[in-house]
Amino acid sequence: MNGHMSGAFWSAGECMLELRPQSHGTLAHAAAGDSYNTAVYLKRLVPDMPVRYVSALGDDAMSGLIREHMRDERIDDSLIDIRAGGTAGLYAIATDANGERRFTYWRAQSAARGMLSAPHLAQLGGRLAECRVLLLTGITLAILDDERRAALLSLAAQVRAAGGWVALDNNYRPALWDVATAREWMDRAAQVCTHALFSFDDEVLLHGDRSPAEALARIAALGVPQVVLKLGADGCLIGGAAEHATHVPALAVRAVDTTAAGDSFNAGYLAQRLRGASSIKAAEFGCAVAAAVVTHPGAIIPAAALPSLNTEP
After folding, report:
1. Which of 200, 224, 236, 249 is most deeply packed, by most CB within 10 A?
2. CATH classification (class only), 8-15+33-82+116-305
3. Is there a catalytic annotation at residue 187?
4. Annotated catalytic residue, options 202, 209, 257, 263
């Protein structure tokens, strides 16, 4: 896979408004979501690369707040379909006495479920030549209907055919779709992607794999050129259709909050691969980014806390 690519990073998915309780009965808000978290970290690590978010939002106040957060992070929102009368997805966080976080979602009517309408697809098709990396996730596919899923994978196939990369994070959420549908569409997406950035825990839920090696072999057999199987505190396995499996250990840290660990790993891994680093070096850096993220509360940590792309992990 050729490194040093020019062009833009596109991340497709649902960005929601996050509400967090503060002192004196107030709430703080932030933009959040798996594909958005990766976009933010990628932009911070590779500031010269255009990062564009592909989604749909409403014209309500909450959607406006999300777009403000995106602009603060220098995420280009020009590929977001603004739907009249639509609303953004929303979730609230509650923290118990042990510091464990619970989430309550209001996303069933989210405008993001209506992304990739005919006019939106026409807009994306007109700019697809700019895309050098397209990120998809299992959550992105889960919130769409079959017609939109097929349209998204068609866009991904075009990016790959033009020499770009298609990165896929499995991020399986049983509450969003049934396991049989998820298996079918995730396999179809894997056959289109160039980089599978999968979590072993999600593969166990989806396929019942008994070991990371078994999961890695099954994913590689779909023809995926490069596979990363994330193992949480145990690091990751690197492999693929034409690679032998290699284990990359995680950094030993005391985790405070594991939110966005996988999302930030994806950004660190892809940032290094774009520079031409080997998959192993990229995975080591991805682990370093994730280690920084889990030692801070929240999905998006202060930019100064991230490791530098120019520093050896």
Report:
1. 236
2. alpha beta
3. no
4. 263
Which residues make beta-bridge pairs with 248? 236
pLDDT (tens, 9 = 90+) of the chain, 313 residues, equals 444 457 999 999 999 998 887 778 888 888 999 999 999 999 999 999 999 999 999 999 999 999 999 999 999 999 999 999 999 999 887 766 544 567 888 988 999 999 999 999 999 999 999 999 999 999 999 999 999 999 999 999 999 999 999 999 999 999 999 999 999 999 999 999 999 999 999 999 999 999 999 999 999 999 999 999 999 999 999 998 766 789 999 998 888 878 889 999 999 999 999 999 999 999 999 999 999 998 888 788 889 999 988 865 4
Predicted TM-score (pTM) of this structure: 0.93
Q: How far apart are CA 290 and CA 312, in angstroms?
A: 15
As a whole number of angstroms, the distance between CA 257 and CA 294 comes to 5
Instruction: Please report, to the nearest 10 degrees, the dihedral formed by the alpha carbons of residues 132, 133, 134, 136 taken in order.
Output: 170
- Domain boundaries of the chain, sorted by first residue: 8-15+33-82+116-305
Neighbour tally for 293: CB within 10 Å: 30
The residue behind tokens 């397209």 is 134
Question: Comparing C-alpha atoms, which of 68, 30, 40 is closest to residue 303?
Answer: 40
